[in-house]
Specification:
The chain has helices at about 5-10, 10-35, 40-65, 95-105. It is mainly alpha-helical. The chain has a domain at about 5-65. Helix 2 runs antiparallel to helix 3. The longest helix is centred in the N-terminal third of the chain and has 24 residues, at about 10-35. The protein starts with a helix and ends with a helix.
């Protein structure tokens, strides 16, 4: 899909096209990994189309003319979890049999 055609679509249509492209991309990627599809060109085109759609959505979001792809969640303050330090194991003591041999020499 060309950038001109994407610009003509409204935000909701772009979002649905984006979702469909993501699903197609997933299926194509899976087929390529399994060796079932020869369509590397289709995969590349789909990736580029998806990037164009994302670019247009972000441009509209920056301009304020289209709703965001997903509604923003209100910020909730979460208390920072205290990190628990793992106890380090005690250093290994020297083998008493070896130390006894050293002392006897």
């Amino acid at each position: 899909m060309k950038a001109d055609k994407i610009r003509e679509l409204d935000g909701k249509e772009i979002e649905t096209q984006l979702k469909e492209a993501g699903e197609k991309l997933f299926r194509l990627k899976f087929q390529l990994k399994m060796g079932q599809a020869e369509g590397v060109k289709n995969y590349r085109e789909l990736r580029k189309d998806r990037a164009r759609m994302l670019t247009e959505l972000s441009a509209r979001k920056a301009a304020g003319s289209a709703p965001a792809a997903a509604p923003a969640k209100p910020a909730t303050a979460k208390p920072a979890a205290a990190k628990v330090a793992k106890a380090k194991p005690a250093p290994a003591k020297a083998n008493p049999a070896k130390s006894a041999k050293k002392e006897s020499k």
